[in-house]
User: Which sequence fits this backbone?
């Protein structure tokens, strides 16, 4: 059995850890309020942008445009959104598992990392890190998403990559976050949707389809990247708040258990001292 000194030292150590986890929970809670508002405001635009572009291209028929044509390159690019810090439960690892469990294999996939944790994990698994943007996830802006979008679209138009994906964490609510893998280009159009749209008139572009798509596709890619970053920040803070809340509760249980052990050890020590005093008094008399 551990001595009273060892139990007291461990209890003090757990109490210090509990203070840290409690403080981190409070910080995450404050950050979550602001991040959740941004996520809830951008989420409808995020969803409708994706659905609208898919619907538009289903109506467009055969359109010859560099952003829509099938590439001969078997290289795939994936934008991975994680955090720069840990202590967020399975937030970062779930995004990595979503990628490694998909068809995106290390030998033909280039990764554009937003956040250090995804870069570290995927590089260990053999993926090629094409670019890293760790500072972007701290305060996501539309301009940051636009810069990343331009880089990827240029590589896609030049035939350097054949597909573009986005891996991020969808913010459902404070206690629920879902990792997602979304294909951005070429746009995946549901066959049922194509059949439904074919019954209506084709999409007409003004002034012409090339100029229209030159504006629409970059805005589509940029909006989805930005929406993914905003939702990921909210998800990160939600996951960290949950993780720190669980850690604080576990610390309370450990402290209660150690207090019980300390009291038992103290009672045992007092009993032993009394026994020794009584035995000594009896020996003298």
Assistant:
């Amino acid at each position: 059995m551990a001595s009273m000194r060892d139990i007291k030292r461990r209890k003090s150590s757990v109490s210090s850890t509990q203070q840290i986890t409690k403080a981190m929970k409070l910080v995450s809670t404050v950050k979550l309020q602001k991040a959740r508002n941004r996520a809830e405001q951008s989420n409808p635009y995020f969803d409708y942008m994706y659905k609208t572009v898919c619907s538009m291209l289903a109506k467009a028929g055969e359109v010859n445009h560099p952003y829509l044509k099938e590439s001969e390159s078997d290289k795939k690019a994936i934008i991975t959104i994680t955090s720069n810090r840990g202590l967020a439960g399975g937030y970062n690892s779930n995004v990595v598992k979503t990628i490694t469990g998909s068809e995106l294999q290390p030998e033909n996939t280039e990764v554009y990392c937003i956040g250090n944790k995804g870069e570290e994990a995927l590089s260990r698994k053999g993926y090629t890190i094409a670019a890293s943007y760790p500072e972007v996830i701290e305060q996501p802006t539309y301009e940051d998403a636009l810069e990343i979008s331009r880089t990827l679209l240029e590589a896609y138009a030049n035939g350097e990559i054949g597909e573009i994906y986005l891996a991020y964490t969808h913010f459902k609510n404070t206690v629920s976050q879902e990792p997602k893998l979304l294909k951005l280009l070429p746009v995946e159009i549901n066959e049922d949707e194509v059949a439904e749209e074919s019954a209506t008139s084709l999409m007409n572009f003004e002034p012409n389809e090339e100029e229209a798509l030159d504006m629409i596709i970059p805005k589509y890619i940029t909006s989805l990247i930005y929406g993914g970053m905003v939702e990921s920040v909210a998800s990160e803070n939600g996951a960290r708040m949950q993780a720190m809340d669980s850690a604080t509760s576990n610390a309370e249980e450990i402290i209660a258990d150690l207090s019980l052990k300390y009291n038992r050890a103290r009672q045992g020590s007092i009993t032993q001292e009394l026994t020794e005093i009584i035995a000594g008094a009896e020996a003298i008399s």
About this structure: The chain has a mean pLDDT of 85. The first strand starts at residue 76 and ends at 81.
